[in-house]
Structure formats: structure tokens, C-alpha cells
Amino acid sequence: MSGVFTNMGQGSRLLHWTGWIQIGLAIVFLFCGAFDETRVYGESVWLKPIRYSVSIALYVWTMALLLRPLRGWSVSAWLARGIALTMFTEILLIALQSARGMPSHFNNKTPQDATIFAVMGLMMLLNALLVFGVFLGYVWRESGLDAVLVAGIRTGLVLFMMGSLAGVIMVVLQGHTIGAGDGGPGLPFVGWSAMHGDLRIAHAVGLHGLQVIPLAAWWISTRMRGSSRTAQAAALLVVSLGYLGVLVFTLRQAFAGQPLLRA
Asked: Is the pTM of this model over 0.85?
């Protein structure tokens, strides 16, 4: 485990510490929720920043690992700075709205709320472009990694960008629930609707492809070391297509107005 964190630091010390700061913020938000009983859409107003800070920590740590093979690329440091900036801006704006007792997303009730949401949207767009930059790094640059692992990383980055597109759909629709307004009964912690379709599920599936597929590629390249390159590539293709199938299924289910699990 210590080796993993060492690799993060070697990939990007900035992103490494950004992740730890996000974990620290999650603890702060947890304490805030213990003393603040304000609720938005039926859940503690501090639950969303807790979810986001933990998710951001996982994301920036993943990007720190992915940037390590590209650290000889002059652009990689700027990509890390951009990712850290967008993530800090995002979590601080979410926390600001929580402190005000207001929803952070799809909230255009006042000019201030609309501005905050617009800035958050801009940060997410910029972050998606930065992820695309990392993808180009794995296309243009020689990483020195196993070919199957590189293919898995590229696939994970593409899935992340597809998940980001699901976020764009939510912005266009000005909500994440299909078949009703946002809010109502939701699954524990994640808050996904337990009564209607919810685009956040496909959004999350796509984003976390960034971890799942490269990890699967690493496992394949390690456990199937004695197999042919073709067999390893075929195994990765099966996993990737299966994961893509889950993404498509959750997106279709959301547009059909069906919850992942019904309350």
C-alpha cells in the first residue's frame, strides 16, 4: 500500500496532497452534518459534499498514478495543476451552497445560485478537457507500460469522458431525475432515486471506469503473463465491452424512468 502512495507522489505530488486534503474536508463535512440538521431534497445538506470529496480524492489519486508514466512530458505538470484547480473549485462551491442550506446543482433560483452553478459547470468542462489531454498523452507519448495496460488506461479515460457526457445531459435537462423532479426517496449514501430514473447512475458508472478498466488491465497483464498478447487483449476487450454494456444499460434505464433499485 505504501508503494501505491509513493507512486502517486512520483506522478504528481500536487494531486497526491489534493487527495488527502479532500479526505480531510470529508471529515470536516461529516462534523458539520452532525451539528447542522438542514435538509435538501430529503437528505442532510452536508451529504453531497461528503460524497464529492471522497469521490474527488479517489479521482485525483488515480490521475496522479496515471500521470507518473508521463512525468517526462512537460504538459503533465500543467494537467495536474488544472485538475487540482477544478476539483478544489468544485468542492468549495458545493460546500458554500451547503453552508447556505441550498442545493448546489441545477439551482438557478437567484443570480448568485445561477453563477455558482455556471462556474461549477465550467470547471467540469475544463476537467473533461484535461482528462482528454491525459488521453492524448497515452496516445502520443511512450509510457513504457505494458501494451495491455496502456489499452486499459486509454479505455478508462474514454469511459470517464463518456460519463462526463452524461453530466452534460443532466445540465441540458436541468436535473438528474427522469419521470419526476429531483428529490424523493433515494438509495443510502449515494442518493440515487429509488422511485424514478436517475442519470447520476450512468454518470458514476462512466466516471469510475477510470479506475475499473485500468485495474482490470493490470490484473490481466499480471495474471495472464504466460498467455499470448492476443489472449490478453481479448480478455480486456470482453471486460471493457461488459463495462460499456453496464453504462448503456444504466443510461437506458434512466431514460425509461426506472430506478436501479425500487424502494
From this structure: yes
